[in-house]
Design a protein that fits this description.
The complex is a heterodimer of chains A (438) and B (246). Chain A is built from nine helices and twelve strands. Chain A is rod-shaped, with a radius of gyration of 47 Å. The longest helix of chain B has 17 residues. Classes of the chains: A alpha+beta (438), B alpha/beta (246).
Chain lengths: 438, 246
């Protein structure tokens, strides 16, 4: 059996543990000191009393006529000791040198040793019990029957101790709670930190350290939002300023005579235009939502998307039915699915959409193709902006490397998740999972 | 003498408006180019035009403001085609909401602009709509449905969005613009082929049956779109314009 002690994981339990152990130790120390002090003084008083009492009692018994002694025994009887007019019981002899010799022995020895020859015997039994044998001056035996014991503790003392323990636990809990709460709040705020949404300002009140942390957090939040805004503005400005010259160039190109050069120029312009658009779209997708959520009939939504492709002569098929109404941002959802479908069309020439309602109420929309797929080790990276797979999906197939990144960002923004996997038999499967609908 | 369509181009970029003007002129249209809203107003005072091509981002009054102004004045019937530099769907929708008939995202190809101009002209000439949709009242109500003409989707009785494909929307819009009037297949095809030539070998009949499904209309006993034997189709319910939801 090997129980290793483990340091508890949460700060709250660690703090509680430290507080509690320290408090209990301190409490035990002060209780122990008091108890010892009380014990010492009680012992001295008791032994002092014992000495005078025993010597007085023996002197009385000694002087009484032998037939009257029995009637006095009752009055000389004390809590812990009494007198027997007999040789007493048999027991093991004791000596003063024994390490566990009761201190009462020494006191009795001091009180009577000079006038009487004493023998001590220990009587075995559940309680500590010894007897002192002596002979009175008329030769009759006398036995002092001693049950050495301290004054018993009051019966309410354990209750007080338990009460103290409970008080300590309560105080520890309260203190730890008060100390931890701001930290918990901070963690919550960081967890929910979404630079796109309206920032949640932390309360800057409370103890100095907490107020400082809250201020620092709020400032950091504002800085992140400012950076994002700046990036967004930069991208938007660049793209806007590029659109005018690109428009001019395209218009001019249309006045050129038909030639291979014109086509090449046209394609280059289209590529620049595409990059600019995707760049802005990506910035927007990261920067988040201007669009409101609304109740959307998912089946008609997917139908219309697929029909739009079919009407353009594209090989896009839809199977499955969800029969669900979801609460979503339709443009964002459409953009996610369009990006995935465009990708499938680009690399496989055809796309299959499959919608399923899961038993837990979530909905999964899969966009699948029979194209070259993506190497397993690259699956995670392709969602990074501007990442392109080296072999099959390279620059020559066009594209900006932003399509999947945008899809991923928007999927997150609408509370869904996007995962890519390779299909059995070749091809890529992009699965968009949407959380529990209405 | 044959009528030559007169197109007014409003764009603050001199090169773009002249390039566009020249291209359209080369393709048999009459064009006038102006730089801003002020010049546009002055020109329209004296000369009516058949269609206005307008940039949305301009110094001074922007395209949306001008569009709204035109729609509330005496030029409310003049078709407007917006040129927008923005590429966000919500922005495009605002353009349409403000009363533009169509839009084109910059950078665009001149030949596409020409195709759009012709499509808009054809559409507005052939059958001018009975109802003028404006930005404040953009919902068309019929039966248990409402059509949101700016977001281009249906709303059912409890406000759930039912999406429409591009072709479905255009066909429904044609029906709603001309309710209780028999439209033959050629008319429907012409009116529906608004934008890209995306009715790629799909007959009107297939599109009608798709639309019926979307409206939960029973094909054997349709309540919304009725078949008129050997003539075409008719949208059989009255349509009214209602205010936009808040």
């Amino acid at each position: 059996m090997n129980y290793s002690l483990r340091w508890p994981r949460t700060l709250a339990s660690r703090l509680s543990l430290i507080f509690l152990i320290c408090l209990i130790l301190a409490q035990a120390l002060s209780f122990g000191a008091q108890y010892y002090e009380r014990y010492e003084s009680a012992k001295n008083t008791m032994l002092g009393n014992l000495e005078t009492d025993v010597s007085t009692s023996i002197a009385i018994l000694d002087r009484l006529p032998a037939d009257e002694r029995a009637s006095w025994l009752h009055q000389l009887q004390r809590n812990n000791y009494g007198y027997l007019l007999s040789a007493g019981e048999r027991g093991t002899p004791m000596s003063m040198e024994m390490p566990d010799a009761p201190i009462a022995m020494a006191s009795i020895m001091d009180a009577l040793g000079k006038e009487h020859a004493l023998t001590f015997t220990e009587i075995p039994g559940p309680r500590k019990h010894f007897q002192v044998h002596l002979k009175l001056s008329d030769g009759n035996p006398l036995t002092i029957d001693v049950f050495p014991a301290m004054m018993p503790l009051s019966p309410w003392l354990p209750m007080v101790l338990l009460g103290q323990l409970a008080l300590m636990i309560a105080c520890t809990w309260l203190a730890v709670r008060i100390a931890i709460r701001p930290l918990t709040r901070l963690v919550e705020a960081v967890d929910n930190l979404d630079p796109n949404a309206h920032p949640i300002q932390l309360d800057e009140k409370g103890p100095t350290e907490v107020a400082h942390a809250a201020k620092a957090f709020n400032a950091m939040q504002a800085r992140i939002a400012a950076y994002l805004k700046e990036r967004m503005q930069l991208l938007a400005a660049i793209s806007h300023d590029l659109q005018t010259p690109i428009t001019r160039m395209k218009l001019r190109a249309e006045f050129m005579d038909d030639s291979a050069e014109k086509d090449k120029l046209w394609n280059d312009l289209s590529e620049i235009e595409h990059l600019v658009r995707e760049g802005v779209a990506y910035a927007r997708s990261v920067h988040g939502a201007t669009e409101d959520s609304r109740r959307t009939d998912l089946d008609s939504f997917l139908d219309s998307l697929v029909f739009d492709y079919q009407d353009m002569g594209k090989q896009v098929q839809l199977s499955g039915k969800s029969t669900t109404v979801i609460d979503t941002r339709p443009h964002a959802l459409r953009r996610v699915l369009v990006n995935l479908t465009d990708n499938a069309l680009k690399f496989a020439g055809a796309a299959e959409l499959l919608v399923e309602k899961k038993t837990d109420g979530s909905v999964s929309v899969k966009v699948m193709d029979r194209g070259p797929g993506i190497a397993e080790e690259e699956l995670a990276q392709v969602m990074q902006p501007f990442y392109r797979v080296e072999n099959s999906r390279n620059r020559s197939t066009g594209g900006t490397g932003l399509g999947l990144a945008i899809a991923q960002q928007l999927a997150l923004a609408i509370g869904g998740s996007l995962t890519l996997s390779n299909r059995e038999g070749g091809g890529l499967c992009a699965e968009l999972k949407l959380k529990h609908p209405l | 003498m044959e009528h030559v369509d007169h197109i007014l181009i409003v764009d603050d970029d001199r090169e773009i408006r002249e390039l566009v003007g020249n291209y359209l002129k080369k393709n048999g249209l009459r064009t006038t180019v102006v730089a801003d809203g002020r010049q546009m107003r002055t020109f329209l005072e004296s000369t009516p035009v058949d269609l206005i091509v307008m940039d949305i981002m301009m110094p001074g009054d922007d395209g949306l403001t001008l569009c709204r102004e035109l729609r509330s004045g005496k030029h409310k019937a003049t078709p407007i085609l917006m040129l927008t530099a923005r590429n966000d769907e919500t922005d495009r929708i605002i353009g349409l909401e403000m009363g533009a008939d169509d839009y084109l995202v910059k950078p665009f190809a001149a030949r596409e602009l020409l195709a759009r101009i012709n499509a808009v002209l054809r559409r507005t000439r052939m059958l001018p709509p009975n109802l003028v949709v404006t930005e404040t009242s953009r919902l068309l109500a019929f039966g248990r449905w409402k059509l949101d003409t700016s977001a281009r989707h249906l709303l059912d009785s409890d406000g759930t969005m039912v999406a429409l494909s591009g072709a479905e929307y255009r066909l429904l819009r044609v029906f709603l613009d001309h309710p209780q009037r028999v439209l033959n297949r050629d008319q429907l095809l012409n009116l529906t082929q608004g934008r890209d030539a995306d009715l790629f070998d799909r007959s009107i009949d297939l599109l009608v049956s798709r639309l019926r499904q979307r409206l939960l209309d029973d094909a054997r006993e349709p309540a919304y779109i009725k078949t008129v034997r050997s003539e075409g189709y008719v949208f059989s319910l009255p349509v009214e314009i209602v205010g936009a939801p808040a």
